[in-house]
Design goal:
By secondary structure, the protein is mainly alpha-helical. It is 67% helix and 0% strand.
Length: 139
């Protein structure tokens, strides 16, 4: 009985209902961000993380993404790869939303080597520094 409260297995039953709602991935992402333990993260699948990651990256305000990444980082083998892949796949979309999104996502990426590598690869391919600035033109 004690384990049931530690891992909160009952949360699994909420996932389909949340995802059926408008902005459900955003709300589920906030639930994942609020997970108290790594055991609680076992209630979620990589597909859930991918949907939530995109929603949190592209929704104003984007500051919820930081807490989400911190929570998911506790499960490096099961959930983290989905976050890294989704981060890379939707980075341009998120940055296009507002300049604030780009600044916030760069701050979050700086905390995690995997996300930083994705950001730097994107920046290098577009000729943008990791701070988000294009280098000055050569005379």
């Amino acid at each position: 009985m004690q384990d049931e409260f530690r891992d909160r297995a009952y949360l699994r039953t909420y996932v389909p209902s949340l995802l059926a709602m408008e902005n459900g991935a955003f709300y589920l992402g906030n639930m994942i961000a609020s997970a108290d333990t790594a055991a609680e993260l076992k209630n979620y699948e990589p597909e859930h993380v991918a949907l939530c990651c995109r929603a949190l990256m592209t929704t104003n305000p984007a500051h919820y993404f930081d807490k989400f990444a911190k929570s998911v980082a506790r499960d490096k083998t099961h959930l983290w790869p989905a976050l890294v892949e989704t981060f890379g796949g939707h980075l341009d979309e998120a940055i296009a939303k507002t300049p604030d999104h780009g600044a916030l996502l760069r701050q979050v990426a700086a905390k995690y080597p995997d996300l930083k590598a994705v950001l730097e690869a994107r920046s290098a391919s577009q000729g943008i520094s990791s701070s988000g600035q294009k280098p000055p033109a050569l005379a």
